[in-house]
Design a protein that fits this description.
With 313 residues, the protein is of the alpha+beta class. It is 39% helix and 21% strand. A seven-stranded antiparallel beta sheet has the order 2-6-5-15-14-11-12, with no helix packed on it. It has a five-stranded mixed beta sheet with strand order 8-7-9-10-13, with no helix packed on it. It has a three-stranded antiparallel beta sheet with strand order 1-3-4, with no helix packed on it. Helix 1 runs antiparallel to helix 2 and helix 2 runs antiparallel to helix 3. The longest helix is centred in the first third of the chain and has 62 residues.
Length: 313
C-alpha cells in the first residue's frame, strides 16, 4: 500500500459505522414501539420522545464524524489520482521502451532489461493503486452521495493496420483507441476496408493528385475520460473503435457492469456513430439510453459508471 496512507486515521471509518449502527437500532426500537402505542399511549409518547432525542444526539455526533471523514476522503482522492496516474505512466514508459526498441535505439538485451524493470514498476504501482482503491471504496460506502469510483484506465492494444503520424512532441506512434496526451495534434491515416465507404476528402475539397491510392485521412476525434469533472486519458478514434470490458478492445473499461463487447464507434463518411452491442446495462449519451447515436462534439457517453466526452476536433 502507498506509504502516504499511513497519515490517514482510518479508525474514523469504524466510528462512523458504529454510530450509524447505533442510530439504526434506536430507530428500529422506535418503529416497534409504534405498534403498541394504542395500549399505553402515555408510556408510548415518553418512549418515542426518548428515542427521538437519542437519534438526534447520535445524528449530531454523526455529522461531526462525517465531516472529518469527508475531509480525509479528499486526501484519499488525491492519493487515488496520483496512484492511478502512476500506473498510467509506468505503462507508457514500457510502451516507450518498446517503441525505441522497434526503431533500433536499444539492442535486444538492453530492451529486455528495461522491459523487466518496467514490468516490476507496473506491478508495484498496480499494487499501490489497488490498496488505495480498496480504502476509497470503504469511504464511499459510508458516505452516500459521494461520486462513484471510476475504473482504472487500461491501455488499449495498438491496431496493427494503422500508421499514425504524430506531432514532433509525441513520444511514439499511436494507434486508434490508444491514449494520447491532451492537446497533441495527431493525424491518422488508414487503409480502409473494401466496403467501408469512407470519404477520402472533405466535402467540396478536391483530392490531391499525388495522394497514394487507398489512403484515407481520418479526423482526429477523441474520447476523453471524465474523472470527476477533470479530463483523464485520451483515446484516439479510428474507422472502428470497440469499447468493452476485455483488453482486446481498443478502449477497455474493466468493470463488471460493462460487457465484453459493450459498444463500438464507427466512422461513416465524416461522422462518428456510436452503437450499443446489446449490452444488458446499456450505453447512455447525455443521460439517455441509446442503441445508435450520431455523435456530436461534447456528447457525454456513459457505461458502467465510466463517462467519456466526445471531441470532434
Amino acid at each position: 500500500m502507498a506509504p502516504d496512507l499511513g497519515n490517514i486515521d482510518v479508525s474514523l471509518l469504524d466510528t462512523l459505522a458504529r454510530l450509524e449502527a447505533d442510530q439504526g437500532s434506536v430507530r428500529a426500537l422506535s418503529e416497534r414501539a409504534a405498534w403498541h402505542r394504542d395500549k399505553v399511549f402515555e408510556v408510548y409518547s415518553r418512549v418515542v420522545r426518548d428515542y427521538a432525542a437519542r437519534v438526534g444526539a447520535l445524528e449530531e455526533k454523526l455529522g461531526a464524524v462525517r465531516q472529518r471523514v469527508r475531509e480525509d476522503l479528499g486526501t484519499v482522492d488525491a492519493l487515488y489520482g496520483r496512484c492511478r496516474d502512476g500506473v498510467d505512466q509506468a505503462r507508457v514508459d514500457l510502451q516507450e521502451s518498446e517503441f525505441r526498441r522497434e526503431i533500433g535505439e536499444f539492442t535486444r538485451e538492453e530492451f529486455l532489461k528495461r522491459q523487466e524493470a518496467a514490468e516490476r514498476t507496473i506491478a508495484d504501482r498496480e499494487q499501490e493503486f489497488e490498496g488505495v482503491r480498496a480504502l476509497r471504496l470503504r469511504y464511499l460506502a459510508l458516505l452516500p452521495g459521494e461520486p462513484a469510483v471510476p475504473a482504472p484506465p487500461v491501455p488499449a492494444p495498438p491496431a496493427p493496420a494503422a500508421t499514425v503520424v504524430a506531432a514532433p512532441a509525441a513520444a511514439a506512434a499511436l494507434a486508434p483507441g490508444q491514449r494520447v496526451p491532451p492537446d497533441e495534434a495527431v493525424t491518422s491515416f488508414f487503409s480502409p476496408p473494401s466496403a467501408a465507404g469512407v470519404e477520402a476528402t472533405s466535402p467540396g475539397q478536391p483530392a490531391e493528385e499525388d495522394e497514394a491510392p487507398g489512403t484515407v485521412a481520418i479526423s482526429s476525434a477523441l474520447l476523453i475520460e471524465d474523472r470527476s469533472g477533470q479530463p483523464g486519458a485520451h483515446h484516439r478514434l479510428g474507422v472502428l473503435t470497440t469499447i468493452g470490458r476485455t483488453p482486446d478492445n481498443q478502449i477497455a473499461v474493466p468493470v463488471r457492469e460493462v460487457s465484453r463487447r459493450h459498444a463500438e464507434i464507427v466512422l461513416t463518411g465524416t461522422e462518428y456513430v456510436l452503437k450499443d452491442l446489446g449490452s444488458p446495462n446499456g450505453t447512455f449519451v447525455n443521460g439517455e439510453r441509446i442503441t445508435e447515436h450520431r455523435l456530436q462534439d461534447e456528447d457525454r457517453i456513459a457505461m458502467g459508471g465510466q463517462v467519456f466526452v466526445f471531441k470532434a476536433r
